[in-house]
From TrEMBL:
Name assigned to this protein: PleD family two-component system response regulator
InterPro entries: CheY-like_superfamily, Sig_transdc_resp-reg_receiver, WalR-like
Sites of 4-aspartylphosphate modification: D56
Top-rank lineage group of the source organism: Bacteria
Pfam families reported for this sequence: Response_reg
The organism's taxonomic lineage, starting at the top: Bacteria, Pseudomonadati, Pseudomonadota, Alphaproteobacteria, Rhodobacterales
Keywords carried by this UniProt record: DNA-binding, Phosphoprotein, Transcription, Transcription regulation, Two-component regulatory system
Gene3D superfamilies, per the entry: 3.40.50.2300
Residue intervals of the Response regulatory domain: 4-123
UniProt key word Phosphoprotein: yes
Length: 321
């Protein structure tokens, strides 16, 4: 079944072009809005549903930046990918758009291959995030994550939205030179961290330990969600990224903290998945890293560093470090 796409653009000509382009790319379930306020009303009232939103930046009454922020404020729409449509004359607005919660952008007139790649990358990332959340109490988890993010992360890391915005605002050439490390707190989140309060304490503790590790000024770090952290670095090869990942893993191990598991306890540890620079879109690299570190966690090994595969679902054997 084709993903449902919402397209918001105040130009009839642009809407015709968007629909024709999406049809050629195999996206046949498209809901178009000329009026951004009508789009917001439909979204807020649950009259509209979508797997991805394409949104023009420059629109009357409500521009794309405000519309994006209003949509992101809705809990049920917080994970729906939003790709901004921008002309080269309003590229300066992209930083604001990313801070409002946009995932990616394409410039007008569209290159079909680029648009398809960015859409599929965003849909792939959403699918991976949805997969890892299945079976969890979404409402309780969100409250814990929101509390953690507001209380601890800003003092140590950039926000998820700001980190994402910084990544996506890189030039295409710089994006190809971007390496990522995805960290995950080890342990079964349903069993070992059954108490939500303890889970939040662990995230706080790991954030504090990560914050003590010196990193180059050009690098960035963010609490991504729940038990995931994401690190980004330019001009770092695989070996350098692996060495950096080991620094953070060692910082947690050297703290000698423990996690209660029923009547017993285990050492607190984190695992990492290294995603070296490549031609892949940033969203694709993030999805690879998330699945990689999830797969590493399922092996039962702790303090593991894995290398993300080129194709999600085909990961190399994890290495113990």
């Amino acid at each position: 079944m084709s993903p449902r796409i919402i397209a918001v653009d105040d130009s009839d000509i642009a809407q015709d072009f968007i629909n024709a382009t999406l049809s050629e790319l195999g996206f046949d379930d498209v809901v178009s809005f000329i009026d951004p306020r009508a789009a917001l009303d439909a979204i807020e009232s649950d009259e509209a549903a979508a797997d991805l939103i394409l949104m023009d930046i420059m629109m009357p009454d409500i521009d794309g930046i405000e519309l994006c922020a209003r949509i992101r404020a809705l809990d049920r729409w917080s994970d729906v990918p939003i790709i901004m449509l921008t002309s080269r004359t309003d590229m300066g607005s992209l930083s604001e758009a990313f801070m409002a919660g946009a995932n990616d952008y394409v410039t007008k007139p569209f290159n079909q291959i680029e648009l398809q790649a960015r859409m599929r990358s965003c849909l792939r990332l959403k699918s991976e995030l949805d997969r890892r959340r299945s079976g969890e109490n979404r409402g309780a988890r969100r409250r814990a994550v929101q509390s953690f993010s507001e209380a601890t992360v800003p003092s140590l890391f950039g926000s998820k939205g700001g980190f994402q915005g910084n990544l996506m605002s890189l030039s295409p050439a710089m994006q190809k030179d971007l390496g990522l490390i995805v960290f995950r707190i080890d342990g079964d989140r349903d069993q070992a961290d059954a108490a939500r309060g303890q889970r939040q304490e662990l995230q706080h503790l790991v954030a504090g330990l990560f914050g003590k590790v010196d990193i180059p000024a050009r690098d960035g770090f963010s609490h991504w969600e729940d038990d995931l952290f994401v690190y980004g670095s330019l001009h770092a090869d695989h070996a350098q990224l692996e060495a950096r990942a080991q620094q953070f893993i060692s910082a947690v191990a050297e703290a000698s903290a423990s996690v209660k598991e029923g009547w017993t306890s285990r050492p607190l540890s984190v695992s990492a998945c290294v995603v070296p620079p490549s031609d892949a879109a940033v969203a694709t690299s993030l999805a690879r890293g998330i699945q990689g570190v999830e797969s590493a966690g399922k092996t039962g090994a702790t303090g593991t560093i894995c290398l993300a595969a080129n194709d999600i679902g085909h990961l190399p054997r994890n290495g113990q470090h």
